[in-house]
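Lecture 7, part 2: worked example. A protein chain together with S-adenosyl-L-homocysteine.
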Amino acid sequence: MLKKNDMAVVTISDMGVDGEGIGKVDGYTLFVKDAVIGDVVNVKVMKAKKQYGYARLMEIVEASPYRVKPVCPVARQCGGCQIQSLAYEKQLEFKSNKVRGNLIRIGGFEEDQIDRIMEPIAGMKEPYHYRNKAQYPIGKDKEGNLTAGFYAGRTHQIISNLDCALGMPVNRQILEKVLSYMEENHISAYDETTGKGLVRHVLIRCGFTTDEIMVCIVINGNNLPRGEKLAESLAEIPGMKSITYNINQENTNVIMGKEVRLLWGQEYITDYIGNVKYQISPLSFFQVNPVQTNVLYGQALEYAGLTGNETVWDVYCGIGTISLFLAQKAGKVYGVEIVPQAIEDAKKNAQINGIQNAEFFVGKAEDVLPDYYAQYAKEHPGETAHADVIVVDPPRKGCEESVLETMVNMGPERIVYVSCDSATLARDLKYLCGKGYELEKVRAVDMFPMTGHVETVVLLSQQKPDDVIEVDLDLDELDITSAESKATYQEIKDYVLKEFGLKVSTLYISQIKRKCGIEVGEHYNFSQKENQRVPQCPKEKEDAIRAALEHFAMI
Ligand code: SAH
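Predicted complex, written out as structure tokens:
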């Protein structure tokens, strides 16, 4: 085992969720930021745990054949792009393999099945400058000059970078104009440590199909002195449509405040996903990679297989991007979303597109869907609520089991699952496939090139009762599964951390083991002190622990 400050030479053989390199030294796993698959690197151990450690890349001993020179000169310091040094083709291969691996390991699907149904990952032709939104902090660099860029590590110092490789080329021109307006008018930058200074951030958004541009200056104050000067200068940029400022006087990391005031033009810009039009204001949510959003949601639409009369649910619908896409080909679409503001946007977007067959509900999916189902049964005795197609696009933690259960009860012919985390996707697919659905298609889509993230869209179909289910029993295999298999608490913790990014305690693991009927030692279940309330494992962690127990074939 390695200790803190040890040096080691390691071959990088894998990549973690955040794009960090992973390699082994005598069976001990090291996570190495900035190292790419195929590199042989010299590292220094910064943090050593029992099963794994984190190490800093000191020197590349032998560069991977897949290593490329990052386009951005400050890629390593910035950390916004974790895998710019990996050839794009290899990034796609890595992401595709990640999805495949999770479906097999966590979802329990057969390799053969996945290889047969998985479509090639949808990558980008131009994997740079894909973001339609940028938020630059304004501050001072090392020399004390006013600039825009990103914070250096955990400090308040700004590393100047006006040309983010993922951002729009026009960003530089806008930032230069803001900075010279600030210099000329003696306007200060906000300083997080003292809470003094005026200009905090510059938000820039661009409509990729309309070429409309928006600039919003986030300030720690009530007004922007000589704001008309800035507006005059920015308005010269072709495509400029909206110049506003936003008031944020809180001592917080949250970038935007609540109030937006107009300086010039209008308060929003317009853009399209497919043929649906959206009005985007400084505070509204909008997918940041519109090109790939179109690909991802286009695929979801194709999988939904609509003919014009279907009843469709879009659960976790956000501003209704998928709902409105589907509404054009469906009978009726119901959207469910927890954020009220997003639903207001969804309704407004339906209206400006003349879409009348979409209805939206504000609330938690795990409340709205089961309540709707129960209410329907009450109002229509002897009947149950039915959907023809259900689309879900949940956050990273996936769907609550009550959502999955209600979905199954609504008996849709097809379920389309859009996911930003293939580990929780695999877990949920396992549930759905245990309840009469069959995994038919899988496609990964690269929405965030140069980062470790990958989106996936899958199609599930209801198995018809007359479908013949082939059962192939292998006695050897049966023996293995029934044999007692055990993982240590540490192994379970490591697995949960690696796959779900969650830290779980021994107490929680023992609670879930007990729930699953696995023997656990007495002392794990009770608090040392009498009458003390024992914390109960939250649902999200429970799901992750269950996935680990399944992974280690303990349940
Ligand atoms: N398809 C959407 C984006 C989905 S992202 C779009 O294009 O706009 C996931 C969404 O789920 C987010 O909008 C988030 O606010 C919402 N969400 C998170 N937890 C939820 C819950 N428990 N119930 C309903 N919606 C939830």
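The first strand starts at residue 7 and ends at 15. Confidence is low (pLDDT under 50) at residues 473-484, 523-531. Keep this in mind for problem set question 3.
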